[in-house]
Amino acid sequence: MGNPDLPTPQHIVDKLIEAAKDPRNHRYSVSRGIHKLRVAMADWYRRKYDVHLDPETEVVATIGSKEGISHMILAISAPGDMVIVPDPCYPIHSYSAVIANADVRSVPMLDDEDEFCASIERAVKGLWPRPKILILNYPNNPTTNTVNLSFFEKVVELAKEYELIVVHDLAYADLVFEDYKAPSLLQVPGAKDIGVEIYTLSKSYNMPGWRVGFVVGNARVVGALVRIKSYLDYGMFQPIQIASIIALNGPDDCVKETVGIYQKRRDVLVDGLNRIGWHVEKPKATMFLWAPIPEKFRGMGSLDFALMALEKAKVAVAPGIGFGQGGDGFVRFALVENEHRTRQAIKSLRSLF
Ligand SMILES: Cc1ncc(COP(=O)(O)O)c(C=O)c1O
User: Fold this and answer.
1) Residues 6+ apart with CB under 8 A from 129
2) Which atom of ligand 1 is nearest to the CA of 1?
3) Considering the domain 10-249, what is its CATH architecture?
């Protein structure tokens, strides 16, 4: 699983403890997130992407991004509406549409951003009634594919032409290596007219168990999510919201440290696999490695291959088919073990070859 193993930075934990001691924080909170938290999120976007957001109408805090995605799709789609999702994809991207009784249409994920954009356009053009929502995620889980801002420029154009709502999951915004920078959909002028972006504190700040995410951008979509959430929940425990303000406002050295650790693990894993004859390339981002199943095992399919890796080498990898039919030729490694354990895993995997 992509379950970060590193501890939440101490200054964030300390703030949680301090806030938890104050009885004023023990009451119901605000489901859309307290004002200062939404301001901190807007400030984060301004600093990182020079994107300006109105904390009142364009930002809503969510109980992790999974909750945000699923309730948002429920709020903005009606049964039978078509939702376009890449195959493979992070499971909630397709299941949010299933939960909402919408109609999922898969578009094969392609590495080349121009070809992928063209294939989305072909799919949209060929469907009637026209699809309503397009869900994207870059840097991508599970494929680790990345894009440049020009991809989002084309997506915004496409969305305007075909009246699509674009939902972009930016979970791995900060987990980028060397000189790659992950763009935000909202950097494209006019992106707020057609879409929203989802961000999470789970990965950048090692806060997966805390459940803090955000949906930002188009005010109508944000408003729909605020409305449905006001019926469903009273917001996160307030001390968590207060500690999240501290996380977002920085300092950001802790994020850099985390990225450095993932980068080293990536290098140990990729170099090691290449040494034992499993040819893989270094991903530019995320905390994963999307590895094509070695030639001699390809016929087995990803599920049986993953079971074999578990039984014979005691290494757990996620079978690509868990992310969609298009993932069946691959397995996904998560960089959630230290360098020593990663080396041990490579040694055991050698026995398979
Ligand atoms: C693309 C993507 N989105 C969202 C999530 C979940 O994030 P959260 O912990 O905010 O629910 C993950 C977790 O692995 C992910 O890979």
Assistant:
1) 82
2) 14
3) 3-Layer(aba) Sandwich (3.40)
Question: What is the model's pLDDT at position 21?
Answer: 98
Q: Is the CB of 70 under 6 A from ligand 1?
A: no
Query: How far lies 46's CA from each of 13, 52, 96, 182, 345, in Å?
Result: 25, 6, 29, 15, 41
Question: Which residues, 6+ apart, have CB-to-CB distance to 183 below 8 Å?
Answer: 49, 138, 147, 148, 149, 151, 152
Atom of ligand 1 nearest to the CA of 64: 10
Q: What is 254-350's CATH superfamily?
A: Aspartate Aminotransferase, domain 1 (3.90.1150.10)
Average pLDDT of span 260-271: 98
Where in the chain are the domains?
Answer: 10-249, 254-350
Q: Residue 1 pLDDT > 90, yes or no?
A: no
Cβ of 140 closer than 6 Å to ligand 1, yes or no, is no
Residue 214 pLDDT: 98
Nearest residue to 31 via CA among 221, 227, 300, 240: 227
Residue nearest to atom 2 of ligand 1 (CA): 171
**The pLDDT of residue 194:** 98
